[in-house]
Specification:
GO terms for molecular function: ATP binding; ATP hydrolysis activity. Helices cover about 50% and strands about 10% of the residues. It starts with about 30 loop residues before the first helix and ends in an 11-residue tail after the last helix. By secondary structure, the protein is of the alpha/beta class. The radius of gyration is 24 Å and the shape is globular. The protein has helices at about 30-45, 60-75, 100-110, 125-140, 160-165, 195-200, 210-225, 235-245, 250-265, 275-295, 300-315, 320-335, 340-355, 380-390, 395-405; strands at about 50-55, 85-90, 140-150, 175-185, 205, 320, 360-365, 370-375.
């Protein structure tokens, strides 16, 4: 008998519990979808359309709602002979500048027609923009440009200035570009340059975290498809929903928790998934979520985390934000990326505290120094190094931090508590 054997006692079809699964309908987002439909309606009416920006934390339905709405938009637009609609989608997860986004857009457009990609280096930014405008003009009509996780570009926001003005500036003749920006950072717009804010003239749609009842509504049809009849105890879906609602309000977290509970039940040979499996799954995923939370930080967030890890490696923690900021700006200089203000660094630190990645101490020195905060990592340094090593721009920094930590004997060989 082989080591691996097919086991279908628990799962009937696990696809509805996969991150890539696209449901037939979008639940618990009626108000947001109504706003989205109003924002896209001018395309069907064949008139100028505002840019659209979606804000919300990870797992609140922004991306799945966009795929759902654009799919319907494309189907409905096909009924009209006078509408020429194209969409192009770029994930900005590993892109930290307008230059990189423009290159990615050019290559996405060229690949869709079987053309040759351009190199990611060797061009001036304006030349890449010119190539992008040429590629867009080939399409003609209305082109919806989706920039997912656009907050990764930080202050390098020229792409958000150039694209909306391309037609009025004469860079394109036959197209109307419409930008759909998707951001995990509610404060992203606040940090755009004034000229970009003025040019975008976008409609904003906020996706708040789900509550437990909403998550239960989202989970139930997926669970019905994913598991055999009678496998789920009655309290499993409500408990998964409650855990996720109390933590992040993320549907993705609730779905992963349900899948993990099923896998644990399958592993121990159980024919039912119980509350115990959910609680054990929660413990397991909490560790994984810390790692994923670090991975999903923006480039600026990674730079702040890198600065704090370096101070940790030197055994110089807890550290005040003003001292951490000096190291952060040096890292940005080495990365050749713009640094943000010290206030924004504190915002990133606050986000990391909410994710459980760092620990914050409030100090009160009285009249001499007043109140201030100090920060240190709340996860093993080795775990942070693993994340930085997996992010190409931070590999060199990870090596430097590793050497400093080794010199100070701060790297633990056992990270079982992580």
């Amino acid at each position: 008998m082989g080591m691996f054997q097919r086991d279908r006692r628990v799962f009937a079809d696990a696809e509805p519990l996969d991150d890539s699964y696209e449901p037939e309908d979008i639940r618990e987002r009626d108000e947001e979808l109504e706003k989205y439909q109003r924002a896209l309606q001018p395309i069907i009416d064949n008139r100028p359309t505002s840019n659209i920006f979606l804000y919300g934390k990870t797992g609140t339905g922004k991306t799945v709602a966009t795929k759902f709405m654009l799919s319907h938009l494309e189907d409905d637009a096909a009924q009209y002979d006078d509408i020429d609609l194209s969409t192009v989608w770029v994930s900005c997860e590993n892109l930290s500048s307008s230059y990189q986004v423009a290159v990615a857009l050019v290559n996405e457009l060229r690949e869709s027609r079987g053309g040759d990609r351009i190199s990611t280096t060797g061009y001036s930014q304006q030349r890449v923009f010119d190539i992008l405008y040429e590629e867009l003009d080939v399409l003609g009509g209305t082109v919806v440009i989706v920039l997912d996780e656009i907050d990764n570009i930080g202050h390098s926001d020229d792409i958000l200035y150039g694209l909306p003005r391309a037609r009025s500036n004469g860079y394109v003749e036959d197209i109307r570009p419409v930008i759909v920006g998707i951001s995990n950072d509610f404060q992203f717009r606040d940090n755009l340059s004034p000229k970009v804010k003025d040019t975008l003239a976008e409609k904003e749609i906020l996706f708040p975290p789900y509550d437990a009842n909403q998550l239960r509504s989202i989970l139930e049809p997926r669970a019905e498809k994913a598991f055999h009849d009678g496998v789920l105890d009655d309290d499993v879906v409500p408990l998964c929903s409650a855990f996720a609602a109390q933590d992040t309000g993320s549907a993705r977290q609730a779905i992963r928790l349900l899948r993990e509970a099923g896998e644990l039940a399958q592993a121990d040979g159980s024919e039912t998934i119980t509350e115990v499996h959910v609680r054990n799954a929660q413990d397991e995923l909490e560790k994984n979520q810390l790692y994923e939370g670090m991975q999903e930080l923006t480039t600026q967030g990674h730079a702040v985390l890198c600065a704090l890890a370096y101070r940790e490696a030197l055994d110089e923690v807890p550290v005040r934000s003003r001292d951490l900021y000096k190291r952060y700006t040096r890292i940005c200089g080495r990365l050749d990326t713009d640094s943000v203000s010290e206030r924004r660094v504190r915002d990133h630190l606050s986000d990391m505290n909410m994710l459980g990645l760092i620990r914050v101490y409030e100090r009160n020195e009285g009249l001499s120094a007043g109140r201030y905060h100090e920060y240190e990592l709340d996860v093993p340094l080795r775990a942070v190094l693993d994340v930085l090593l997996s992010t190409s721009r931070f590999e060199d920094f990870a090596g430097i931090i590793h050497s400093a930590a080794d010199d100070n004997g701060l790297l633990r060989s056992d990270i079982s508590d992580y």
